Amino acid sequence: MLLGASDQDTVDQVLRVTVYRNLFESSTQRMPHCRCGYCHVVNNYYKNWSYYAIGARVHARVLSELNVFEAGSHLEVTPWYNQFNSDLTPTIVSSKDLFLKGATFHEFMKYGTLSATQDDYPAYKVPTVATNSLASLVSNCSGVLFGSKLDDCLASQ
């Protein structure tokens, strides 16, 4: 999930994206990876990523909020490697995330703190659930919903 066309596309500075209520299991990277703009990553369940879960560059602003990160072989949610001349211009902030099995989150605070109600999203609000019930909700409510899966989803709300 690469958001923002390229490092040179300044038009992406107006990008406003919400990544909401997804199950990411055994994925490699870019869940999402944001360039420029603002990305609100909220109420997602991450399990066993390979390289990294959330990434950003080129002045992107990413707020990770109320997500669950259950580590597998890789612990760092947002790794950054200086030996690769990494772009250190983004802001990546974690708010009320739950970290399991040793998962860690490296915050990049180039531009200060972020919130989902700042100028990026005036009067913005998505319905969220606490991290302790997120795994069940996302497992029941991801993908195509019909029959008993729809009933399970509605019951978990």
DSSP E strands, number? 12
How would you classify the helix and strand content by structural class? alpha/beta
Give the topology string: H per helix, E per strand: EEEEEEEEEEEEHH
Number of helices: 2
Radius of gyration: 16 Å
Percent helix: 10-25%
Low-confidence parts: none
Average pLDDT metric: 81
Through-space gap between termini:
27 Å
Oligomer: single chain
CATH architecture: 3 Solenoid
Full CATH superfamily name? Single-stranded right-handed beta-helix, Pectin lyase-like
CATH level-3 fold name: Pectate Lyase C-like
Q: What's the number of structural domains?
A: 1
Overall outline: globular
Determine the strand fraction and express it as a percent band.
25-35%
What's the main sheet like? 5 strands, mixed
CATH class: Mainly Beta
Query: What strand order characterises the main sheet?
Result: 2-5-8-10-12
